[in-house]
Amino acid sequence: MDHITGCPVCNGFDLLEVTCPHCGEMLEDRGRFFDLLADYSPYRPIDDLKKSDGLVDWVTNQCPHYLYCRHCGHDEHRMVQEHPL
């Protein structure tokens, strides 16, 4: 039986609060990395996107978030561990 998991940040259970390693300002969570890949990405099934985004998120049950610093322009990806729903 498959276990259904979900991202606690995407589902509003947690906040992703990360400071910029360059300037110390808070990074802005711009959402799931794969939603930014193409115009219709947010409408595709999440598991389908995870199989084609080039990351190991499908195997590890993690959700890749894109973070950006408005102050200095630094950006990075942060993997959030998914939890059973």
From TrEMBL:
State the superkingdom: Bacteria
Name listed for the protein in its UniProt record: Sarcosine oxidase delta subunit
